[in-house]
## 1
Amino acid sequence: MLNGALHHLWLPQTVCAACYEDVVLATPFSEAFQSSPIPQPADERWNCKLTAFTQRLMEIFSGSSDSRDWHYVAAAVNASVRVPDYDGPESVVGAERNWWRPKQAVGDMIACEHCYYLYFAASFMEDDWEPVDEEDMVAADGMTTWICDMTLLPMKLAHLKAMRGISSRIFGDAARTIMSSPPCPLNEQYEGVWHGLAPYGNYGGTCARCFAGIIVPFGFQNHFTQLSLPANLKFTCIFNARTPLFSQTMDKLDEAICKQTLPRIQSIMALTRMRLQQHQMLMMSGLMLQGLDYTVTAVQGPGHDRYGFASIGYNYATMSGVQGAQQYHQGMNMNVVNGGDVVLVAQLEQMWKEVE
């Protein structure tokens, strides 16, 4: 684990080494981090606190070298990590935490502060939200316990697509339908709009919420047809997370995507590390040998034999100098990161995120 620190601001156990290399090193804030002086005890589990909010915030200020920006980032991250988690979808006492809602009302949609930081803060959708006044909420519906609507699976997937497309309209359209539709059914009667796979709709039964948040944003609506449900029958949406089949399917997807992506990514990373080590060794060895050769040249003075090759010149006092020049040029011309590997890793990462 690494700590983030600058002057009086302190972010203890903020980021793991992997996320530090992947994200923080690409920002001017890397100098504000140092290895944690406290080793991780064997019986403790630490969590990396480099959340999606922290990453977005660092990206916003990635072109800045002003230390005041780090003050803002550190203060915002400190505030976000103190927000209580929300496991959902169980209701919680509303007064125990802060809540947010769309400025343009989307039904009765609300989001807990934890989900606000996770999904909206420091993003292009941040300005679409405003804090909820507790008295207003109680006066509106008389409830003292609330449920965060961002715990709904179709809401999360609609947000994912909106973030990728940088389009708040995608999320807004889905959210309006989700909030105005009945809950996703699990072996119960359903009074909302029902869809099935075209042309007859016999398979793939999907409720209105999941259709709006999962099917439509990803462009599969033309493969479905709307159905009229018979009365007094019970239905289960294929995307209902409480069904055993859904859990089994997700587990199989997780296992499959892991087998397809992680071994290949790890292999590419291992080869890249090997090439980097070889590059560093060649550069260091080449500089050392050339440095010694320069010393010999200075001692010899003019009139002595010189060595070399056409590719590096004939200005070396020793064959060790020639070897050093060759190693240095080899290191300079070495391609540590293969362009094809970068593209492949990006594709594998995209596959992983699609399942995630």
## 2
Amino acid sequence: MTFANEDEAYKTYNAYAISKGFGVRKGQKANNCKRILRTCTFFRNCEGHSPPISPHEQIDVYMTVKRTGCEACITFKIENGVWIVDKFKDVHNHPFIDDKQKHLI
């Protein structure tokens, strides 16, 4: 699957994510030695782990996004300005958002 630019690739993956019931965020980008973008990864917004918060820094407000270590992601390889899907990982370790709440993503 190929895309013309980053915006098109992100919008397509984001639409897929919302239809499944999860949100995404932009992640790692890598340049070659000539500083030309070579790869870009979009993650599930729960990817990774939140840093520990000390008791005096805890916030009393409920946070809607918690990092769970989810491994879902998509990586694009950029060749001559064309965004090509290089890796697609659809592994989740959490429940998806209910259909009635997808508009909140």
